[in-house]
Amino acid sequence: MTSFPPVDEQLTILMRGVDFGDAQTYKNMEVELRQRLQESRDTGRPLRVYCGYDPSSPDLHLGHTVTMRKLRQFQDLGHHVIFLIGTFTGIVGDPSDKDSARPQQTLEEAMEKGKTYAQQAFRVLDPERTEIRYNHEWLSKLSFQDVIGLASHFTVQQFLARDKFAKRYAAGDPIWLHEFFYALMQGYDAVALRTDVQLGGTDQLFNLMAGRKLMEVFGLRPQIALTTPILVGTDGHERMSKSTGNYIGITEPPEQMYGKIMSIPDHAMRNYAELVTSWHPDTIERLFADLEAGKIHPRDLKMMLIQARITRRDCRVNYGS
């Protein structure tokens, strides 16, 4: 039987850095996670925790590591982690953060890119405690009747209430029907994997909640949704993305990574300190108070970010000093 740390200790670690943009949702998910952690500790059964990554490019970047570090925290606490590669959802592409439809790719293209995702994941995750899955394993087997059944549990109004869709609709820009399918597919991932917890960025909350809903439809206990803030790119404004060129790849040579980190606008440094270092929150508060007071130069703080080795396999539960 697996031995787990006390529930309060686990909860403090796992909820740190989680953000829904809504206090009530945070409270609800915290209550559910506490209950699930207690059951896990009582029975010795590790929680099944996953996050999905669509292979839109061949390489992972620092933006991906925000949720990957949270996965690693679950691992270090003794839970079972599934690194899901979205080989089928990657055909459509997630519209959550886009002002227009993503270019489609073939399953073969997505699978080829997914190979490097599987290799690079272990720069953060423990290979001995990581299960790699590909969602074409089950999504490619759904019939058209199955898809209609999934769609019958959602309304067009629910989709149009989403920020990016609402803006595109108001502007008269096209919203393609296949983009609606993305949330259905991601929601079905949770059903197929029978998971306890799903992680995602704050822009993914609708998709994570779709998973909760579909699990209920299939008679399963709804998973807990945990979302983390989005890492901005090197431009300091847009989310980190390969398509916009503002990314820092986790396999880039040190000198290239050094140059990119040093180019980050000063106002974006806190975003990086909070999301891709192991610094304790108290340390971050102190450093940025010193920055505000002029005791630390922005360049020196960026050097500290680099020295923190933000891409090393160091996602320990305990924060560094």
Fold and architecture overview:
This protein is an alpha/beta fold. The chain has two domains: 7-228, HUPs (Rossmann fold, 3-Layer(aba) Sandwich), CATH 3.40.50.620; 254-307, no CATH class. Helices cover 49% and strands 8% of the residues. It is built from 15 helices and five strands. The protein has helices spanning 7-15, 23-43, 62-76, 89-92, 107-120, 136-139, 144-151, 156-160, 163-171, 177-193, 205-217, 254-262, 269-276, 281-292, 298-307; strands at residues 48-53, 80-85, 130-134, 197-201, 224-228. The protein has a five-stranded parallel beta sheet with strand order 3-2-1-4-5, sandwiched between helices. The longest helix has 21 residues, at 23-43. The chain is globular.
Overview features:
321 residues; alpha/beta; Rossmann fold; five-stranded parallel beta sheet; 15 helices; 5 strands; 49% helix; globular; disordered C terminus
